[in-house]
Design brief:
The chain has 17 helices and 7 strands. It is an alpha/beta fold. It folds into 2 domains: 3-10 and 72-308, Glycerol-3-phosphate (1)-acyltransferase (3-Layer(aba) Sandwich), CATH 3.40.1130.10; 313-375, no CATH class. The chain has a 7-stranded mixed β-sheet, with helices on both faces. Strand 3 (122-126), helix 7 and strand 4 form a beta-alpha-beta unit. Helix 2 (15-26) packs antiparallel against helix 4 (43-52), helix 5 (56-75) packs across helix 6 (104-115) and helix 15 crosses helix 17. The protein starts with a helix and ends with a helix. The mean pLDDT is 93.
Length: 376
Amino acid sequence: MSQDKYKDIRPYMGEEESAALSRIAAHPILKDISSFLFPGKSSEDLKNLIASLKSVSEFQSKVMLYAIKKIVNDTSKELTYSGLGTISVPKQRLLVSNHRDIMLDSAIIQVILHINDLPTSEMAVGDNLVTDPFMEDVARSNKMIKVIRSGNSRDIYKSSLLLSEYIRESITSCNSSVWIAQRNGRTKDGLDLTEQGLLKMLDMSGSGVFAEDFDKLSITPVSISYEYEPCDFLKARELYISKRTKYKKSPGEDLNSILTGIMQFKGNIHIHFCNPITRAELEHCSTLDKNEKFKKLAEIIDERIYQSYRIWKTNMMAYDIINSSNKYFGEYTQEELNDFKQYCELKIAGFDGDKDEIMEIFLSIYSNPVIRAVSK
């Protein structure tokens, strides 16, 4: 792989790794990070640890994986996962998951891979999340691929082609598996849908033979289910505003969402590694008209994710509340229902707007996965 061609978007390599780790170790914000990860210990310990590291793999295994495990332990009841047999075959693949949390979706997947002695993947992340040099150093020292989303239409085309080529080359050269979200931006309404634009981007680097090109990527859908939706109120608020005007992010909003997703209680978390998209399915897609090919492939990925999505009590309670029903009452207790109602009320308590409408939007984030499951 040509280092120069992909230098601005790929994870750090070679001499770049130790240089970035030295910058991370010297950054003053590390003191605050240390107090969170290692309460009661001197920040010099973390600084010295990072300064001693020489590679991305060392940074992942000795710092980042520990950090994510701590976040999961501190902010969730239990992390479970299934379907690992699907990816136990030594093969590079494209992991395509639904997208509910900016950082944790891909990070938790890396923890699962690591504790099961499977190679971690590279992760495609939007450049809007790495505008700060320190954040970029941390991200690209953690196998991040930078997805460039800014610029005019010509710039976006060129960056999309470069990303497509990089992903394909990484996988087909057996360099690394890659994780990418099924859509640009997190699911806000609880309905996980794969964007056709993502699939068209991946197709840009192919030979023009649809089934063969996508088969080489070994697309493996991954379904991520949180009992308590990360940034649930922030998502509801965005949807509320978007119904009235074009939503514009405020300065620092992405960072706030990252921190909220990290710190918010998530209850139970379940991740399922679905069966890969088969050559037969791709051959069927290839018989359709151009746009219909991508639409059908997106539907197949979505079906895999929804079939494996874990429906929690929070989802069922939200469905019953919003529909004034007791359809799922046997799955939860009155006490649990009262606690969930209180949780919802507390979440929207400070909202300056139509409380009934924001509550309906908030509940729909939780109830929509149930509606989608029932419709299937």
